[in-house]
């Protein structure tokens, strides 16, 4: 199976990025409709072009890469470098003294799952973070996701570090 091409996002990617996002939304909305929605398709391609792409080009602490496979956008990753807290010496969490990479989104279209695309994208983000001085990478995912939890834990060697609770009011 050929590897995906991992490249920076560029103008014109909006529709392909939106298709991946909609596909992911459809998957999670059927899995847990209380928490996830199928996002509105109208205006989404422009939203990616105007906000996501622009932010990743203008801000050197932002990282966005697209995976291209069979000439299609198969997935993307978005992350940013976070600086140490100025108050780190008084904090309880050690990592607040470190430069960290926060992953905001990592998505692969369902039809490309289990072809190594997620791994390629995440490794690209890890490498970029490392080269920018990050010593830790952190992200949130749905605790019961049948795809992302095994991907991070078994596939990529990530460990659980906290719980986010919720209660509807
Ligand atoms: C999670 C996600 C990014 C994984 O992408 P992917 O391209 O399918 O993952 P890869 O093919 O690179 O998988 C790498 C390894 O992770 C593990 N893995 C990935 N998906 C898995 C699954 N569904 N079940 C069990 N293990 C899995 C496997 O060890 C896999 O290696 P293998 O296929 O050689 O066994 C993809 O399922 C996805 O986009 N899901 C929806 C969005 C999402 O949940 N994103 C993460 C939230 S931040």
Structure, explained:
- The longest helix is centred in the first third of the chain and has 18 residues, at 14-31.
- β4, α3 and β5 (136-138) form a beta-alpha-beta unit.
- The mean pLDDT is 96.
- A 5-stranded mixed beta sheet has the order 1-2-3-4-5, sandwiched between helices.
- The chain is 33% helix and 21% strand.
- α1 (14-31) packs across α2.
- It has a single domain, classed as Gcn5-related N-acetyltransferase (GNAT) (Aminopeptidase), CATH 3.40.630.30.
- By secondary structure, the protein is an alpha+beta fold.
- It is built from 4 helices and 5 strands; from the N terminus they run βααβββαβα.
- The structure holds coenzyme A (COA).
- Residues 24, 27, 106-108, 113-119, 139, 141, 145, 147-148, 150-151, 154-155 line the site of coenzyme A (COA).
Secondary-structure blueprint of this entry?
Layout: E1 5-8, H1 14-31, H2 44-58, E2 62-69, E3 72-82, E4 100-108, H3 117-131, E5 136-138, H4 148-155
The structure holds coenzyme A (COA).
Do you know the CATH topology? Answer: Aminopeptidase
The kinds of small molecule bound in this structure are: coenzyme A
Percentage of residues assigned to helices? 25-40%
Low-confidence stretches: none
Could you provide a short overview of the structure?
Helix content is 33%, strand content 21%. It is built from 4 helices and 5 strands; from the N terminus they run βααβββαβα.
């Amino acid at each position: 199976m050929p590897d995906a091409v991992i490249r920076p996002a560029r103008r014109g990617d909006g529709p392909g990025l939106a298709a991946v996002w909609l596909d992911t939304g459809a998957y999670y909305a059927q899995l847990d409709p209380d928490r996830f929605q199928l996002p509105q398709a109208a205006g989404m391609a422009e939203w990616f072009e105007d906000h996501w792409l622009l932010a990743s080009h203008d801000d050197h602490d932002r990282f966005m890469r697209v995976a291209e496979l069979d000439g299609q956008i198969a997935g993307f990753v978005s992350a940013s470098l976070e600086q140490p807290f100025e108050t780190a010496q008084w904090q309880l969490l050690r990592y607040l003294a470190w430069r960290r990479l926060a992953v905001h989104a990592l998505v692969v279209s369902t039809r490309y799952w289990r072809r190594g695309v997620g791994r390629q994208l995440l490794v690209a983000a890890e490498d970029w973070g490392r080269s920018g001085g990050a010593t830790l990478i952190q992200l949130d995912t749905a605790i019961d996701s049948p795809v992302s939890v095994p991907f991070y834990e078994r596939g990529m060697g990530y460990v659980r570090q906290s719980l986010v609770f919720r209660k509807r009011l």
